[in-house]
Q: What sequence folds into this?
């Protein structure tokens, strides 16, 4: 744990306080204190706040789509009596696929000229430059992330539905509650802990998005899909080699993840307490 967690974390924090370039000896690093953070937070670095906006936008879109669709799939799966194991197995296919492989497959599907999506849409005059337009590239990354992680949410919510006591639902059914009323007032309060778990996990995971966006767009076109994770890669490894500034971005991303996950967890706990009352 010290070797794989503590030492890299300490190196990250310390490096963020230095002006250090990739490929140079550590002895050449110069102390700058919090100048890297001030430069980022003050807007002197005009890439940081747009990357924060893209990251938060992706967080909201990807979390909302995966949680809503995953919950709907879980409810449908809970009401399936035949071939349930088959559907559950099929749902695992996107989940077990490596994000890089999934990104490569979807990049072929999004291709303007020979991609399967435009091949289907072209006869209708609806073909699109999926990865060549800023808004469409953002939507494309959200689509791939939703396709891959909706089964994760669905399986956890399905496990929650299977674990709850059936007697309250049976009583509500005998009292004449409709499907929507039962879902809203009986089922959902009972699976609220599972719902809070998947929301918190998806918030944390969506904040750290890198591999899908890297394979599909590498942050482009322009900066339309450059998240904070991609910004760390651009600054530290690909474009400039500014290890010190990239470390500062990584630390700020960590702080943002901790703050948002804490806010979401507190909110969901408060909602759960209100529902139980």
A:
């Amino acid at each position: 744990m010290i070797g794989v967690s503590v030492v890299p974390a300490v190196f990250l924090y310390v490096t963020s306080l230095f002006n250090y370039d990739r490929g140079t000896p550590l002895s050449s690093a110069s102390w700058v204190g919090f100048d890297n953070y001030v430069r980022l937070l003050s807007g002197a670095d005009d890439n940081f706040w747009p990357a924060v906006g893209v990251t938060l936008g992706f967080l909201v879109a990807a979390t909302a789509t995966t949680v809503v669709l995953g919950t709907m799939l879980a409810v449908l799966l809970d009401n399936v009596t035949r071939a349930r194991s088959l559907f559950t197995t099929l749902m695992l296919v996107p989940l077990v696929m490596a994000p890089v492989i999934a990104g490569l497959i979807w990049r072929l599907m999004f291709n303007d000229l020979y991609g399967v999506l435009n091949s289907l849409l072209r006869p209708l005059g609806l073909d699109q430059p999926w990865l060549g337009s800023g808004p469409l590239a953002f939507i494309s990354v959200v689509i791939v992330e939703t396709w891959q992680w909706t089964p994760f949410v669905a399986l956890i919510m399905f496990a929650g539905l299977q674990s709850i006591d059936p007697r309250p639902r049976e009583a509500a059914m005998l009292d004449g509650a409709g499907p929507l009323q039962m879902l809203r007032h009986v089922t959902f309060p009972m699976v609220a802990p599972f719902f809070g778990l998947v929301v918190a996990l998806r918030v944390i995971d969506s904040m750290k998005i890198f591999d899908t966006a890297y394979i599909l767009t590498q942050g482009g076109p322009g900066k339309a899909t450059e998240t904070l994770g991609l910004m760390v890669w651009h600054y530290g490894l690909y474009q400039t080699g500014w290890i010190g500034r990239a470390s500062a971005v990584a630390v700020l991303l960590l702080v943002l993840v901790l703050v948002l996950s804490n806010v979401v967890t507190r909110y969901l706990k408060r909602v759960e307490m209100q529902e139980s009352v």
In short: The two ends are 42 Å apart (CA to CA). Residues 23 and 42 are 28 Å apart (CA to CA).
